[in-house]
Design goal:
This is Lipid/polyisoprenoid-binding YceI-like domain-containing protein. This protein is an alpha+beta fold. The chain has two helices and nine strands.
Length: 201
């Protein structure tokens, strides 16, 4: 046991510089200018809503493309564009996934994608901002504002590419997009929680 404990301690000590370097690699609170593409393996759009007044239901989209243009000297000239594959919705309940894709709700056969295109970006703090844009869902376009924060940026310790990670939240009323099935028994307000890493091209 003593040998195992000593070996574990040595392993932790040896790994510490690597862990410190990894943490330092993405600790910056600034984002460099450039064209970025979302890393789909590290990006999620999670949606949640009230279910019958008893619980909060969750689902997600992980199949989406997004491009980000950053102008660090004129942030208002930066831009974000996102296209979501609506057929990729996942709740871990197959019957519910099928219902979400049906004409009752997303009607993915008729509306296979949703999109968001920024119209303005406002800096509100050292690592926070508001991204205003147009969300097109179920054939309806409405203005939406994302409250965004920079999680970190820097050289990725694995692929050695420059990466910037962001989190964002917003709330929308699904009935505004013609998705009024079971409202108000099932909540109309939907919270979107977004996390994504972007790789500079």
């Amino acid at each position: 046991m003593k040998f195992a404990a000593a070996a574990f301690a040595v392993a932790i000590a040896a790994a510490s510089p690597v862990l410190a370097q990894s943490t330092a690699a993405h600790a910056s609170d600034k984002v460099e200018s450039g064209q970025y593409q979302v890393d789909k393996s590290h990006a999620k759009i999670i949606f949640s809503f009230n279910h019958l007044g008893f619980s909060t239901s969750y689902g997600l989209f992980s199949d989406f493309d997004a491009t980000l243009t950053v102008d660090s000297k004129a942030v208002d000239k930066s831009a974000l564009a996102v296209t979501v594959n609506m057929d990729g919705v996942l709740t871990t309940v197959p019957k519910f996934d099928a219902h979400l894709k049906s004409p009752d709700l997303f009607d993915t056969a008729k509306y296979p994608t949703a999109s968001f295109k920024s119209t303005s970006i406002e800096v509100t703090g050292p690592t926070s901002g508001k991204i205003s844009g147009e969300l097109t869902l179920h054939g309806v376009t409405k203005p939406v504002v994302l409250d965004a924060t920079l999680a970190g940026s820097g050289i990725h310790p694995m692929n050695k590419k420059y990466v910037a990670g962001f989190n964002a939240t917003t709330k929308v009323k699904r009935s505004d997009f013609g998705l009024a099935y079971a409202v108000p028994v099932v909540g109309d307000e939907v919270t979107l929680t977004i996390s994504a890493e972007f790789v500079r091209q």
